[in-house]
Write a structure and sequence with these properties.
2 helices, mainly alpha, about 0% strand
């Protein structure tokens, strides 16, 4: 079980590096036509670093809670 949880944690952390907050480019509509006359600067907002940090902290917190429960049961 530990191996599966470890593998899933690593998989989620590496997959989160490719996530973007905005799927289509912000200067085009969903059908591909341009919005207005001046394009909006920027592109997809990357959220990978924040998600990676959040998953890491959550896994540390979960491990700590699990260790406390196991210690309590002994």
């Amino acid at each position: 079980m530990k191996r599966i949880a470890y593998f899933l944690g690593i998989l989620l952390m590496t997959a989160s590096l490719n996530l973007s907050a905005q799927a289509p480019h912000p200067d085009s509509n969903g059908d591909g036509t341009d919005v207005g006359s001046t394009p909006v600067p920027g592109g997809g907002a990357p959220i990978g670093g924040g998600v990676l940090f959040m998953i890491g902290l959550a896994s540390i917190y979960g491990y700590k809670k699990r260790a406390a429960i196991l210690k309590e049961n002994d």
